[in-house]
Design a protein that fits this description.
By secondary structure, the protein is α/β, with parallel strands linked by helices. Helices cover 21% and strands 31% of the residues. A hairpin with a 2-residue loop joins strand 13 and strand 14. Bound molecules: flavin-adenine dinucleotide (FAD) and FE2/S2 (inorganic) cluster.
Length: 271
């Protein structure tokens, strides 16, 4: 039987700086079979373990169709993530998962809208990557990504490809001479954009963003049942046992992290 508490040894194949406090890692399992068997849905997360320090839940930021490794993008927050920030190619980490329910599988006739704030972008990146490489087929794909400053932009090396293949709106809250695209809150971009009423909307970002972004889509006529949001809570077990991540009667690790808005909107403080 599969033991979900048993971490698997993995190696950092590549470590890349995204910003002063955010890094991307390419990771592959030491055991070849573990790597071959590793399959996940976009929006799922892994528990990344550092010996003697603990584990941190981190979204997988690469396409499941990459066989040689998977990617994570991590911001330094506390013990585990600060230790990860010091790691380099060849260092060992411990992985459990994938866990949770990811984004609902997009269908051929979907108008899909991705909305990401800050460090949320990596959690929708598998969908963008799959769309650009022909693994994801939908009627249309629109992406809105916003962050505070130029120096906080992540995944910049993909912007040209995404802009060429899809409709991507990227905005900074603050002006910068190096930035030639939109400036202003992400909600302003959504207000200005043409959004299909039957769009499916996937949202991830800082807690403050959800209410305002959801309100814009509701104003555009998108039904509540078409809005999905990925939520962050402090986690421990990752498998629905310890209750650390409870939101009302739901566990973020097991019932989420992606929730359909209309099914959870009445849970106090959910967003
Ligand atoms: C499903 C899921 C996916 C995530 N994906 C990513 C990702 O792709 N990239 C990324 O950088 N981060 C992600 N996070 C957040 C990440 O898990 C936390 O930053 C990390 O657990 C902090 O661990 P630490 O040991 O470094 O910090 P700790 O030493 O545990 O804590 C440092 C500080 O951060 C707070 N904190 C810890 N965890 C969280 C949390 N989940 N939400 C809010 N505050 C918290 C603590 O209360 C404390 O104040 C995700 C979280 C969840 C639940
Ligand atoms: S992290 Fe233990 S129940 Fe969710």
């Amino acid at each position: 039987m599969k033991n979900e508490y048993q971490p698997k040894e993995a190696i950092i194949k590549k470590a890349m700086k995204e910003t002063d406090d955010i890094n991307t890692y390419w990771i592959s399992f030491l055991n070849k079979k573990d790597q071959e068997d590793f399959w996940f849905e976009p929006g799922q997360f892994v528990q990344v373990g550092v010996p003697k320090l603990g584990e941190a839940p981190i979204s997988i930021s690469s396409s499941p169709h990459i066989e040689s490794h998977f990617e994570i993008t991590v911001r330094e927050a506390g013990r585990v993530t600060k230790a990860l920030a010091k790691m380099k190619k060849g260092d060992k980490v411990f992985i459990r998962g994938p866990f949770g329910k990811g984004w609902p599988k997009p269908q051929l006739d979907d108008h899909l809208v991705l909305v990401a704030g800050g460090i949320g972008l990596p959690a929708v990146k598998p969908l963008l990557d799959d769309f650009c490489h022909g693994y994801l087929q939908v009627k249309s794909l629109q992406t809105f990504y916003g962050t505070t400053h130029f120096d906080k932009l992540v995944c910049m090396r993909y912007f040209d490809l995404w802009r060429k293949e899809t409709e991507v709106h990227i905005t900074l809250d603050n002006q910068d001479p190096r930035w030639k695209a939109d400036v202003g809150l992400i909600t302003e971009l959504i207000k200005k954009a043409k959004i299909y009423k039957d769009s499916k909307v996937f949202i991830i970002g800082p807690p403050v963003m959800y209410k305002f972004v959801i309100a814009e889509f509701l104003k555009k006529g998108v039904p509540e049942k078409n809005i999905f949001m990925s939520l962050e809570r402090k986690m421990s077990c990752g498998v629905g046992v310890c209750q650390h991540c409870a939101c009302g009667d739901k566990y973020t690790c097991k019932d989420g992290p992606v929730f359909r808005y209309d099914r959870v909107k009445d849970i106090p403080d959910i967003i």
